[in-house]
Recover the amino acids of this structure.
């Protein structure tokens, strides 16, 4: 007999298209002035476009933004810094950077951070 699935008490509902569009608009236009640091903007946009976990995004090093055969990607792993962690071995992965993020200037932001490790 199959076990009945119970809804989680902390079940999260997905954002609807209007909410997603509003977040994208605020992150890219900053009409409300809520985005005070470029890193916050890019962290949120990376989450929206890649589905990466917040802790994975926050621990990225500049050297984790890589290119292979003309394709830019995030190298999500636990190497290069003792503070980096991944949830499991399967969490280590290379996530392509969406062309919209490149169009918006993500690579320029990465280049501006070259003097820093994160």
């Amino acid at each position: 007999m199959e076990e009945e699935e119970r809804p989680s008490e902390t079940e999260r509902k997905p954002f609807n298209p209007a909410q997603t569009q509003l977040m994208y608009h605020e992150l890219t236009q900053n009409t409300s002035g809520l985005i005070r640091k470029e890193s916050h903007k890019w962290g949120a946009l990376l989450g929206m476009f890649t589905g990466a976990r917040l802790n994975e995004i926050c621990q990225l090093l500049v050297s984790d933004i890589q290119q292979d055969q003309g394709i830019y990607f995030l190298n999500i792993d636990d190497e290069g810094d003792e503070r980096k962690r991944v949830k499991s071995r399967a969490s280590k992965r290379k996530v392509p950077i969406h062309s919209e993020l490149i169009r918006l200037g993500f690579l320029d932001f990465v280049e501006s951070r070259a003097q820093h490790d994160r």
Remarks:
- The chain has a mean pLDDT of 88.
- The chain has five helices and three strands.
